Amino acid sequence: MQEAQQQMLDTIAAEARYTADYTGRSRFSPAVMQALGEVDRAAFVSPAYRDRAYDNGPLPIGDGQTISQPYIVALMTELLDLTPDSVVLEIGTGSGYQAAVLAQLARQVYSLERFCGLAETARERFTRLGYTNIEVRCANGYNGWREKAPFDGIIVTAAAPDIPPALVAQLKPGGRLVIPVGPPYGYQVLMVVTRDAAGKIEQRKVLGVAFVPLIDDGIDNGDEAGRSKQ
Ligand code: SAH
């Protein structure tokens, strides 16, 4: 691992300590930190930003979108409480970095991205890097991916105006949805929604965050995710 990437991990660990009062976790699990060490963020940014690949901040990835801040990637991954058997759905593939981190920890990752160009670039990256447990579709993810449901974890990497009911419905008993909720470019809060074994839904607020908006263009293509247009 490059020294800059080790510094990125140190920064994440420090920020986990500062935010412990909000998140309830002063240290992220060794498995999550190891996954962050194994995925090279530089492989997910364009050459123009490669010298900033390990900065603890978002970076542009085209189409007006961003690769998320590494600390937030770590936190959201941590909050999913994945096991090697988990099946995860991500909404907002973007660069593919978050999906790659999830793929280190889970059995299978499904990811939806509404910009087909970004989805294609991410898919090429996964092939080049040898990932065989990530499936990407170009689609509006607001209604999830019914064909592949239910999921142990669902992670939304764009801010939703509300908690999409279809995503809650696609959680397994014991499953967790990690999602930023709030208006576009306004006050957004990271939330964890859990469905317990009896089907009871609980939600908790974790931390104030700043995400690009989840765009719901009204297309319900949850059954046939590949059908959507850009
Ligand atoms: N997880 C990404 C971060 C992506 S930023 C990474 O690791 O790089 C959020 C992404 O969500 C953007 O790529 C955006 O195009 C996508 N997005 C926004 N609304 C969406 C929707 N309704 N369905 C699927 N993807 C969406």
Helix and strand topology:
Layout: H1 3-18, H2 20-23, H3 30-38, E1 59-62, E2 65-67, H4 70-80, E3 87-91, H5 97-105, E4 108-113, H6 116-129, E5 134-138, E6 151-156, H7 165-169, E7 171-181, E8 188-195, E9 201-209
Helix pairs in contact: 1-4, 3-5
The structure holds S-adenosyl-L-homocysteine.
| SS strand fraction | 15-25%
Give the cofactors and ligands: S-adenosyl-L-homocysteine
Count every beta strand, where a strand is a DSSP E run of 2 or more residues.
Answer: 9
Instruction: Note the overall shape.
Output: globular
The largest pleated sheet is described as: 7 strands, mixed
Helix and strand composition category: alpha/beta
Name of the top-level CATH class: Alpha Beta
Number of domains as seen in the coordinates: 1
What's the overall average pLDDT, rounded? 94
Q: Please bin the fraction of helical residues.
A: 25-40%
Major beta sheet, strand line-up? 5-4-3-6-7-8-9
> Which sequence of SSEs, written as H and E, runs from N to C?
HHHEEHEHEHEEHEEE
Uncertain residue segments: 222-230
Task: State the end-to-end distance.
Answer: 37 Å
CATH topology name: Rossmann fold
What is the fourth-level CATH superfamily?
Vaccinia Virus protein VP39
What's the quaternary structure here?
single chain
CATH architecture: 3-Layer(aba) Sandwich
Task: State the helix count.
Answer: 7
**Rg estimate, integer Å:** 16 Å
Keywords: Cytoplasm, Methyltransferase, S-adenosyl-L-methionine, Transferase
Subcellular location: Cytoplasm
Family: Belongs to the methyltransferase superfamily. L-isoaspartyl/D-aspartyl protein methyltransferase family.
Active site: 68
